Amino acid sequence: MTSNVKKEIISWIQVIVVAFIIAFLLKTFLFRPTYVIGQSMEPTLSNKQFLIMWKLDYKLGNPERGDIVIIDGEQDKTDNKNLIKRVIGLPGETIEIKNGKIYINNQELEPDYTPVKISGNYEKATIPEGTYFVMGDNRNSSRDSRSSTVGFVERKNIEGKAVIRLWPFNKI
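Structure (tokenized):
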């Protein structure tokens, strides 16, 4: 092998290694792809949609009401799968669901983020510090904070915010 060929091979190896390092850092600290599995976020998100989860927002701040978040599977005691839900209640607030409406600190939640009416009630409770109350937009078909297998979501289990829908292309 000539020295020019060796230099070219070494150059390509360096470019590939740098590309892998950059990809690893981006995926670890900034964003990651994720898939929607199930119908719990319909009509906002549908089964098999492909999303980009942005991590940086929550490294610098905290989730806000209305954010669609990806929750680590550690939170779900049923099957340890990541969950995609909407933040409804913040730490220290009281939450109650009655007559098909959500109340935060005794005030009706506006906007409600979904046209799906809620069946069933949820007794008034105070959201503990460091935790959040989350719900699927398909309110009657969602395992979320109302379920004993999920409950209030610990801040450490919120991985990031869904910011871009990449698939299907007609819904970007």
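The chain has a mean pLDDT of 82. The two ends are 49 Å apart (CA to CA).
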